[in-house]
Amino acid sequence: MQQNNSWLFFLILFFVVVSCDSNRVFDTYKSIPNTWHKDSIVSFKVTPPDSINAYNLFINLRNTSAYKYNNLHVIVEMVFPHGKTIKDTLEYRMADPNGKLLGTGYTDVKENKLWYKELVIFQEKGEYTVNIQQAMRENGKVNGVVELEGITDVGFRIEKPEISK
């Protein structure tokens, strides 16, 4: 009985620590089944809390050791409520020069919080759509990687900027 109470205490403590993220405004993930197909677009619908304050935007990724590249290319498209669209092709480093995967995590799964945009003010009220698509290419090849292995989840995060002291 005493052991069950200890587990319950640590479980509650874990959820309290994890939920104390005061900068988070929006943070969600979508799972990638098996491989991330080059034509598969991961979409997030977001309604920002206001049109006055600035926010930082991030792409979050979870990957396993099955990810065999040192970098990652993605196409990120933000569709504004009134139809305007901004499209960026971005590259992120996913491993150090020795091939060790970057990111946080003690197991085979690494979590990466990747900068997308800094100090964005959502001036249009309404729902925004963020679309993320992998755009990996192998060196010397014209066609992209059709089935990207090792990415298990793609996320999008909006947070309040940290105030410098």
Describe this protein's structure:
This protein is mainly beta. The chain has a single domain, classed as Jelly Rolls. The chain is 11% helix and 46% strand. The protein has a four-stranded antiparallel sheet with strand order 1-10-4-7, with no helix packed on it. Strands 3-8-5-6 form a four-stranded antiparallel sheet, with no helix packed on it. A two-stranded antiparallel ribbon has the order 2-9. A hairpin with a 5-residue loop joins strand 5 and strand 6 (85-93). The protein is globular. Keywords: Lipoprotein. InterPro entries: Motility-assoc_lipoprot_GldH. This is Gliding motility lipoprotein GldH. It comes from Seonamhaeicola sediminis.
Can you tell me the CATH class?
A: Mainly Beta
Strand order within the widest beta sheet: 1-10-4-7
Largest sheet: 4 strands, antiparallel
Q: What would you call the shape?
A: globular
Number of strands: 10
Strand content: over 45%
Average residue pLDDT: 87
Pfam families: GldH_lipo (PF14109)
Protein name: Gliding motility lipoprotein GldH
Organism: Seonamhaeicola sediminis
Keywords: Lipoprotein
Short structural description:
The protein has 165 residues and is mainly beta. The chain has one helix spanning 2-19; strands at residues 24-31, 35-37, 41-46, 54-63, 71-79, 85-93, 110-121, 128-134, 147-149, 151-159.
Topology:
Elements: H1 2-19, E1 24-31, E2 35-37, E3 41-46, E4 54-63, E5 71-79, E6 85-93, E7 110-121, E8 128-134, E9 147-149, E10 151-159
Antiparallel strand pairs: 1-10, 2-9, 3-8, 4-7, 4-10, 5-6, 5-8
